Amino acid sequence: METLNCFCRRAGELLLPSAEPCHLDPGALWAPKGRSDQATGHRWNAGSGYCGQPLAGPASGAPGECALCRIAWEQAETYRQTIILPRSRARAGSWPYRTLDAFGARADSLGPGDAYTHSGCSERHFVVEATSRRNDSHTVLLVYVTGEDRIAECRIRRDRLVAVERPVLAA
Asked: Fewer C-beta neighbours within 10 Å, C or N terminus of the chain?
């Protein structure tokens, strides 16, 4: 019994590494794949730039922004703020009154209409759109985050366990 108590004490002292952030910074610029120059940063759009350029990772020191990405991102952001955000607010407001099926699943099973939480973020995320690429280890979701009252892109590992809430369809 003493061994079990010792194990429980030691397990409580373990520090787990922090999870990678799930919300992508909307203002961050990204560097293109296979290019060493970082003079022009691109806006993230589900794995590539809005201009179609494949992206490798954040470009923290990029002094300029791709013009095609900026124009397309501004148009998409306007649509998100004027159309998607009000609809998502209404859906989130009616969520407590709906019949829900709650279960644990992998992140790649999420689809539009689902809500989920995971251990790295206490916010409930309402899935607006899910984008999955077969060769990528991550899934990119467009979600409504109630606590921040905004539409955000989330990039999480496809095999990550999440707590899913899915509305039950009436028969």
From this structure: C
How far is residue 90's CA from residue 43's CA, in Å, rounded to a whole number? 28
Q: Phi first, then psi: what are they for 149, rounded to 5°?
A: 50, 60
Q: Is 116 exposed, middle or buried (0-12, 13-18, 19+ CB in 10 A)?
A: buried
Alpha helices by DSSP H, the chain? 2-13, 67-79, 85-94
- Distance between start and end Cα atoms, the chain: 52
Cα separation, 133 vs 148, in Å, equals: 27
List the pLDDT tens digit at each of the 171 positions of the chain: 677 676 656 655 655 445 555 666 667 787 777 765 667 787 877 656 777 777 777 777 777 888 888 888 888 889 888 999 999 999 888 888 888 899 999 988 898 999 998 887 778 899 988 876 655 777 888 889 888 888 888 888 888 889 999 988 765
Pairing of strands 40-45, 64-65: parallel
d(CA 53, CA 74): 17
Query: What domains are defined for the chain?
Result: 20-167 (2.30.30.30)
